[in-house]
């Protein structure tokens, strides 16, 4: 009966063992796998030794943190070298469409990539992922390729940060929601205070005649041979409608007076 081969003990790295800015592995790590180890076993070795990688990038437009592919590659490229594995795209098939945008066209690329993960002895395993991206210039395809590579690494290596609030809203989201509610409440109170501090509008006086009415009156006066603003017909007409104190200036007419005066002059 052949002797049982003893498998090396794998001690996972901690996040503190890796400088995520440079990829330097502080712990004295070496791959103890046999040179005949399969690529699947080597890939599992990488997964076992991959430390937690925090979400260190910020989407400023939408206000959430994410884990960039560069942050992962900085760490895994060293582990790939130790394990004796590398990744190549074997086949890529992309479709591109163009959508009208506000200022320029939006290019959308959807890509399917077949990957081959090679081991030190030339064997390989395969995987297939999809990627999709949009760009207003010429970067849609490269962004889609990056997305496809990202979703090869994330599930196959179980990329995580070991600090995930599973099953509950993350504290940052809770804080943002609380701050949003406070901002809305403060804004509403400020609006109420502003309205309460406004002076009441002054009571409106008599509605004066409009400029078209004054122009119409002047045309009628000229047709009747009277002076534009001081004709006796004007004074008599206005006085006949209950305002004997009127001084004869058309600009001082109220709107209802101008309307009746126009009717009188058109008779």
Instruction: Briefly note the CATH topology name of the largest domain.
Output: Enolase-like, domain 1
Task: Report the uncertain regions.
Answer: 1-16, 164-171
User: Roughly how many Å apart are the termini?
Assistant: 130 Å
The CATH architecture term of the largest domain is 2-Layer Sandwich
- The number of domains is 2
Listing every helix as H and every strand as E from the N terminus to the C terminus, the arrangement reads HEEHEEEHHHHH
CATH hierarchy class name of the largest domain:
Alpha Beta
Strand content: 15-25%
Per DSSP E runs of 2 or more residues, the count of β-strands stands at: 5
Strand line-up of the largest beta sheet: 3-4-5
Describe the model.
By secondary structure, the chain is α+β, with helices and mostly antiparallel strands. It has helices at 39-49, 69-83, 140-157, 171-196, 211-223, 232-239, 255-265, and strands spanning 57-59, 64-66, 86-99, 106-118, 124-135. The longest helix has 26 residues, at 171-196.
Supply database-style keywords.
rod-shaped, Enolase-like, domain 1, single chain, alpha+beta, 38% helix, three-stranded antiparallel beta sheet, 7 helices, disordered N terminus
How is the topology of this model organized?
Layout: H1 39-49, E1 57-59, E2 64-66, H2 69-83, E3 86-99, E4 106-118, E5 124-135, H3 140-157, H4 171-196, H5 211-223, H6 232-239, H7 255-265
Antiparallel strand pairs: 1-2, 3-4, 4-5
